[in-house]
Amino acid sequence: MNKPLRRIAIFCGLLVLALLIRDNWIQYVQADELRTQKENRRVIIERYASPRGNIIVDGKAITGSKETDGSDFKFKRTYMNGPMWAPVTGYASQAFGATQLESIEDGILTGNDDRLFFRNTLDMLTGKEKEGGNVVTTLNAAAQKAAYDGLRKQGGKGAVAAIEPSTGKILALASFPSYDPSSFAGNSTTTDTDAWTKLQKKNDPNDPMLNRALRETYPPGSTFKVVTAAAALENGLYTSADQKTRSPLPWTMPGTTTVLPNEGTIPCENATLRVALQYSCNTVFGKVGSDLGNDKMLAEAKKFGFGSEQFTPVRASASNFSDDMAPSETALSSIGQFNTAATPLQMAMVASAVANDGKLMKPYMVDELQAPTIDPIEKTEPEELSQPLSAKNAQILQDMMETVVKDGTGKNAQIGDGVTVGGKTGTAQHGENNSKNPYAWFISYAKVADGSAPVAVAVVIQDDEAVRENISGGGLAAPIAKSVMEAVINSKK
Amino acid sequence: MSSTTNSPTHHTSTIGAIGAPSRRNTELALLAFAVLIPVFAYANVGLAINDKVPPGLLSYGLGLGLLAGIGHVVVRKFAPYADPLLLPLATLLNGLGLVVIWRLDQSRRLQASNTFVEAAPRQLLYSAMGVALLVVVLIFLKDHRVLQRYTYISMAGALLLLVMPLIPGISAPTYGAKIWIKIPGLGTLQPGEFAKIALAVFFAGYLMVKRDALALASRRFIGLYLPRGRDLGPILVVWVMSILILVFETDLGTSLLFFGMFVIMLYVATERTSWIVFGLLMSAAGAVGVASFESHVQQRVQAWLDPMREYTLSRQGVYGHTEQSMQALWAFGSGGTLGTGLGQGNSDLIGFAANSDFILATFGEELGLAGVMAILLLYGLIVERGVRTALAARDPFGKLLAIGLSGAFALQVFVVAGGVMGLIPLTGMTLPFVAYGGSSVIANWALIGILLRISDTARRPAPAPAPNPDAEMTQVVRPS
Fold first, then answer.
1. ipTM
2. Which of A202, A360, B121, B423 is most buried, with most CB under 10 Å away?
């Protein structure tokens, strides 16, 4: 009977061997994959196991960490002035995950990034507690405060995006109504879950968690005329600000019997581009759009960044200028209506490209990643995205936009004191048959005495409560843009 | 053995019974390690979780030492030639199991569950009862061949034990598997664990008698010796029995275990490879057949093929799905090569049954690949000692019983460890000695007791022959 016994012994050995092989497979070969799978709760336990690194603005942390007990997460995220900074930081919640900078730079903030590996190993050997690195942003605290306070005083809903034209650094990014990410940073099933539930769109129609500056697209209305004017100059349709355009009044859109109306009685017949922008003539820019045609308009819009998402590194939605449109639709699109839609960041990019002599810089908000010891790990270098218009044409357009603020619809944005402001207002219709209150837009840049332009800004206001007649880009949005520009200029002094 | 020889130098000497080494001192030394290692592990858990040596360290060390000591003394007295490795291996596994069960008792997550009970003190009590049963076996079972007399009683007992979880009133179905019974005032019992031993006794007794008929009366067909139709009877009965267990108790593991054990013993008894082929075919047919009817089994297979989907469904609150398999895999993966260290993992995320069916995952996370391989090799060693006992046994009944018990032990470890590690579909079974559960610990200590008894009989020197008055005169003279 011993021969089968020996065979059974081998069989039992094979069973153990199979277990050993399987064990090596899951604990060695697949270990990393299993360890870092996002559903594996250990990933977030790890995220909150040590104090998280901070997000820094102007040398000061706008986030913090607090030790907690009562759960398997040791530390909880805290935010200074949470609602103001939420569009920048996003949130890091024990119960609801992380978004935006908190999620994108998670590796640095938790200290798990490969670039910190050497330091972590050293810390482990010396017995030092693990710490997270810091994310230094490009934002300007004063500008952000001006933007957020302006939106809050205004009430309603709205967003502000401000960029430094020469580099693409994002200076302000505000959205209102906003939310306090501290309110659900923990994982209490009562307080945190309640706060979270209340903030969801289905429970709060104002959708406070929406990052309007980056993720919401609005019809840009007349502010889009800056893009149309750029297209006219770039394609040689007109060559100067003061050349008379071929613009009949009234103007019937091609292929239709519909007359494109202007807002009020304004001198638009054969107006120069400067006058047309100053008074915001729909007829002039509508015709420019249809004269250039869909393709050329689309090409110019794309150069300004329309049609593609921006990664700042937080993702900004793609703005839209449609393709395959009838001439009348192209005309409407060219005055920022029909299907044209843009994020506030996109419109700030338009203003910044004009201000930067035609060069569009890639917008970014992370200046530097730092190790816990504040040694830099990675620094973002400014990067040119495209050249939507030549320096010469950019200067013509600047001249036109400055007229708008000096003598036209954008007078509310005047700063004086040696500061030249160029801008464009917009009042975009929305709702079925223009049934809802329009969006009030203002985009602008400020030039200081030495000729440099430190800031370009876009403001959008959606106020469903306001009296319809009071809504205009110049009235609601321009003052906010002005205070943001002032804040940036003052902080440079 | 006891012969007298004439050496080439014409020197005459008489050799008595060879004093085969009893190896009891080896066992004692190994036992010291088997107690010390868990004591250190226990201290380690306390230091990791509470930053201090656990207050119960001394009593735990003494308790485990006492159990090991009693086992050793009884073996020394009643089974002096028994295998020296079995007792230390079982003690070590039991001790480590206690440590990990205590460690999971400290988990806040598990404490938050409304079914939480402190498991470690109970497990210590069960271990004591297990060692007590080992002592009883060693003292009262003077010779394993006595069990042969109870062949058919064992069968009846085994069947009764298996049917008990189905009887309304004493049945205590838990989470889909009907394998527990209630004992009023004492708690629940898993009769299947005891049925395993009773069935091994029955199979050994039955096969020893029938082996010749089963082995010789056969026809040759394409290289295989096919058994006669009527000899197929017993294997068919056992097969049907396993299928019934599977269907009525929804217990895939036990079903596989019994059938596997029977096939192994049948093969050893008859030395016919054809039985293995038949066994495999029948278990495959049975498994496929049942799986196509039983949704419970189908779901287990689904969960095995795609644990992530199972996790997602469970998270969505779909009834009847569990995230445990995926949680166990994450525990293993997160442990990596060396593990997080005792007390520092998060294997308690597995939740229910973390300290019983899934206990290996905690070893995986906290002791890493190295620790799990060590545990698996400890099991491998127990099986190896069991097989060696079967090889050394001098009587067919002892051989069959020893291989049956060791084979079942190996299959059980494979089924449960393979299930938890995702090698095979998961079935509700306990890892011998390590997992929390009274029935399992007690029954496995009894199993070790029987193996010790068989090995003692096998290694014991034959008694010295009665003194022969003619010894001096009848010297055997051999030419050199």
1. 0.90
2. A360
